[in-house]
Each structure stands twice: as C-alpha cells, then as structure tokens.
C-alpha cells in the first residue's frame, strides 16, 4: 500500500536531552549535532525518507490528516549518538489516555492510534537510515588511553 500525499516540511530540531525520553538509551557526549542533522533534513534527507516511507506505509489518508492536525511531524527529534555512531530519534505518539483527553475528534479506535504510532516509528527509523547511509560521514573521535599494553 502507499500513501499519496504532499511531503510535509521537516521538523525543526530543538535542544532536548535525549536521555530525558522514557525509551532513550544514549551514551556519549552532549554534542547531538542537531544543527547539522536539521540541515541534512532540509537539504533533501527528509523528503527522500518521507517518500520511501509513503511508498511502504499502511497508513491511510484519514490517519495522515489526523497526524497533520496534531502537528506530530514537528514533534520528531533526531540526534547523533556518538557512542553508538548512529542517528537516534524520538517519534511522537498519541498517548494511551487519548480517549479520556478527547485528543482528536476523528480518533475513534485503538486501531487508529496504533496505526499512527507505528507509522511514525517507521518513519523515524527510515529518516535515521537515510541520514546515516547517505548524508553523514562523521567519524567519532576516540582517544585511546596512553597506558595500553603493547601486544
């Protein structure tokens, strides 16, 4: 299945510490290279990744419209994890208490919530893969201790 929609603008990356996310495991320095990643997204990585995702996603246009109404694209975060030498990300999601909060008038089922949340996770991973495979050529600097034994 594919989704035939216009590519939305890429997210603007803010200075959030990835360790504050419930699902993040980031080890390393605090230079998350968001400025560089944001520039790559603007230079075409976002559009390329979005188009790849849209070709494969199971999300339908009504769920996509809900996602746009909730401005979920702008809630994405991408950051460089120097320890793992990878692009990390945090995908937005609709909370478990969506029904009690009247989160969006067109959300009527857990199926819709699950579809949106899973699709956003898939989009985030594709963006990371495109960034790492086609845009990033950084090498993490590692200083070996001076007192390593000779073998």
Automatic annotation (TrEMBL):
Note the Pfam families from the entry: DUF7992
Q: Name the domain of life this protein comes from.
A: Archaea
Q: Which residues form the DUF7992 domain?
A: 3-151
InterPro entries associated with the record: DUF7992
Q: For the region Disordered, what residue ranges are annotated?
A: 1-23
The Acidic residues compositionally biased stretches are: 11-23
* Name this polypeptide is given: DUF7992 domain-containing protein
